[in-house]
Amino acid sequence: MAKIIVDGVEVDVPPEYTLLQAAEAAGAEIPRFCFHERLSIAGNCRMCLVEVKGAPKPVASCAWGVRDCRPGPNGEPPEILTKSKTVKKAREGVMEFLLINHPLDCPICDQGGQCDLQDQAMAYGVDTSRYHENKRAVPDKYLGPLIKTSMNRCIHCTRCVRFTTEVAGVEDLGAIWRGEDMEITSYLEKALGSELQSNAADLCPVGALTHKPEAFHYRPWELSKTDSVDVMDAVGSSIRVDSRGREVMRILPRVNEAVNEEWITDKARHIVDGLRLQRLDRPFVRIDGRLRAATWQQAFAVIAERVKGTERKRIGAIAGDLASVEELFALKTLMHGLGVANIDARQDGSLLSPAHGRGSYLFNSTIAGIEDADAVLIVGANPRIEASLVNVRIRKRWRMAPPPIALIGERVDLTYPYDYIGAGPETLADVAAGRHSFFEKLKAAKNPLIIVGPGAFAGESGLAVLSLAAQLADSIGAVREGWNGFSVLHNAASRVGALDLGFVPGEGGLTARQMADGAVDVLFNLGADEIDIAPGTFVVYQGTHGDRGAHRADVILPGATYTEKSGTYVNLEGRVQMANRAAFAPGDAREDWAILRALSDVLGHRLPFDSLNALRTKLYAEHPHFAELDSIATSDVAAGVKALAAIGGNPGREPFVSPVKDFYLTNPIARSSGIMAECSALARDLRLEAAE
C-alpha cells in the first residue's frame, strides 16, 4: 500500500491506483467525461484535473498513477489538491472549452435530466462564455435501428469507441480527421454489428448517442423505477425497469459484478414494445375450429370437462423458457395432485436431470470465475448469441492474458481468437481420450474450463455427449477443491429453476418431445412456444402473447410477463434472483400461479395456498435454497460430474449446432417486438453481405 494525502486527508491505497481512484478513496469527488472504470484510459477530456504539490501544472488524475508521484522534500507522502483555486480555474476553463461548440439542445435533448455534461456544467462551470464564433456542424451518422446520433453534441470522449472495441469486441466505431474536424463514425457509416451496442449510448456522457426506440417518449423524472432481473437468456442480468403508469417505458442495466457487471444485451433492453404488442388479454376457447373470447369460468369448465374424461397417464404438462419458479411449483403441485407424472420443462429435448446432482447442469465455474480460467474448451456452444454476457467475460479473460481457447461445434465469430478443432462428438472423444493436442493444454492448465452448450446436450444423444465432456473434466482434474471447471451453458431463463424443482418426468413419465408428438390427449402448455405440438392433442395454453403456442391452443389462459409479476428465477450458475412487478397485466390477464390456483378448484384438487406469500412459504419448506436470494447454494460438483461420466452411451456423429438461429427472436416477447424484428432483418442482411 502507498500513502497519499488528498485535501489534507492521508489514505493508504494500492500503488497501481490512479490519482482519481485515490481521491475517491479519500472521499473527494472528481468530475470526468472520458474516464470509465471498465474501459482503458484515454485522458481526452481533462475534466479530472487536480493539483499535485510540486508539479508545475495541473495533471489529469485519470492518467497519473499514485506510484508516479514524488514524495515531499522531507519524505512526506505526496499530496494532491482537488478543491484549490488552481483546480477550480482549470475545470472552469475545460468546461468553457467543451461548450464552445456544444449546441443548446437541452430543452429537446433526450439526455436532458440524465446528462453528465449538464450536471457538471452546473457544478463546475461558469455562467458566461468568451467565445462568440459560430459553432461547428457535424452530420449525424447512421448506426442502425438502436442508436440515434446527434453528433453536434459529441465531445470526443471516445467512450463509445473503446466500449465497442474492448468490451463488445466489434471494431465498428472509430475517429476520423483531426482537431476541430474530428468525427466519431462507423466505418462507411454502416450499422453496428454488436448485440451489446446500446451500452455505448448508456456510456455517452452527452446527448450525442441516445436510444433511438425511446426518442421523445418520456422524460427520466416521469418514470417509476423497479429493480428486476432479465429473462431473455439464462444469464440473469440485473436490470432496472422504468415505467410510467401501467406501461413499461425502458429497461436499463444495474451493476452486478458477479453477473453482468453493468452491461445488458440489446434484446434485454429493447423488447419493451414487445411487452405490450400482440398480448393475450382475455381467455379464449376454440369452438368449431375458431378461437372465441370466453370468461374465466367458461374456459375452466371446458378444461375440467376434458380432464375429467381423460386417463391420467394421457395428461401432461410442458413449461416454457420464461416461467418463474412460483408458477412451475404451482403447476407441478397441481399435476401431482391429479396423479400425473408427465411433466417436463426441457422443451429443447435435453435429458438433463436433478437425479445426477445439481453440479451436472450448472455453470459451476460461475460467470465471474471465468476470469480465473487459464484454458477454455467450448463444446457445442455459441456463447455470443446464447449467453452474450458470458461471452463478454471470456473476452475479458482473453484481454487480461490470452489463455488457449478451443471450440468444438459451429465455426462462428466469438469476438476473440480461438482454435477451431472440430465440429462434433468425434473431436470431443479424441480430446477426452488424449488423442488431440488440446488435451495437453487442458491438462497443463491450473484452472481448465470446459463449457458445454445446448448444441451439444440437446437431443437424444445429448446425455452421452455430456457424459463424454464429464469424463474429460474428470481426467484433466477440472473439478477439485477451489475450482469447478465443468460448466453447462443454458439459454433458457427458467431451465435451472425447473431442474432444481424437479420439473422433469416422474417414474414412467413422458418427456416434452414425447408429449408434443401426440403421446398425451390433454396437454397443459405453460408458455412453451418453442416446441411444435402434434394435431389431435387438446392443448391448454397459458401464456402472454399470440405466438405459436396460442395458435395451437384449444383453450387460452392469459398470463403476466416477467415485468408484471413478482417471480423467482435461477440463472445458469444457480444464483437465485427475484424479478419484481413494475407494471400490471392488461385486461383480464393474471399472474400464472393465481390462474393455476383458481383452476385447481375447478379440477377438484385445490392447491394448498391462497397467496403468493403462502406459495413461497410452501416452496421454501420443500426447497430451502430458493429463499437465499442472490446466492448460489453449495452442491457437490465432483459427485455430479462423476455421475455424468459414469453414464456413457453413444454420442453419435452429428455435428453440434446451436439451437439459437436468430439472436433477436428467441421468445414470444421478442417475436412480438417491432424493434427486434428490425434488428433481426438487419442482422440477416449483414450476414448475407459478409457471406458475399
UniProtKB/TrEMBL annotation:
Its main location: membrane. Its EC number is 7.1.1.-. Its cofactor is [2Fe-2S] cluster; [4Fe-4S] cluster. The keyword Chloroplast does not apply. Residues 223-279 form the 4Fe-4S Mo/W bis-MGD-type domain. Residues 86-125 form the 4Fe-4S His(Cys)3-ligated-type domain. It comes from the Bacteria. Keywords: 2Fe-2S, 4Fe-4S, Iron, Iron-sulfur, Membrane, Metal-binding, NAD, Oxidoreductase, Quinone, Translocase. GO terms for biological process: ATP synthesis coupled electron transport. Binds 1 [2Fe-2S] cluster per subunit. It catalyses: a quinone + NADH + 5 H(+)(in) = a quinol + NAD(+) + 4 H(+)(out). GO terms for molecular function: 2 iron, 2 sulfur cluster binding; 4 iron, 4 sulfur cluster binding; metal ion binding; NADH dehydrogenase (ubiquinone) activity; oxidoreductase activity, acting on NAD(P)H; quinone binding. Residues 1-81 form the 2Fe-2S ferredoxin-type domain. Pfam families: Fer2_4 (PF13510), Fer4_NDSU1 (PF22151), Fer4_Nqo3 (PF22117), Molybdopterin (PF00384), NADH-G_4Fe-4S_3 (PF10588), NADH_dhqG_C (PF09326). It is found in: Membrane. One of its GO terms (cellular component) is membrane. Belongs to the complex I 75 kDa subunit family. NDH-1 shuttles electrons from NADH, via FMN and iron-sulfur (Fe-S) centers, to quinones in the respiratory chain. Couples the redox reaction to proton translocation (for every two electrons transferred, four hydrogen ions are translocated across the cytoplasmic membrane), and thus conserves the redox energy in a proton gradient. NCBIfam families: NuoG. This is NADH-quinone oxidoreductase. It comes from Microvirga brassicacearum.
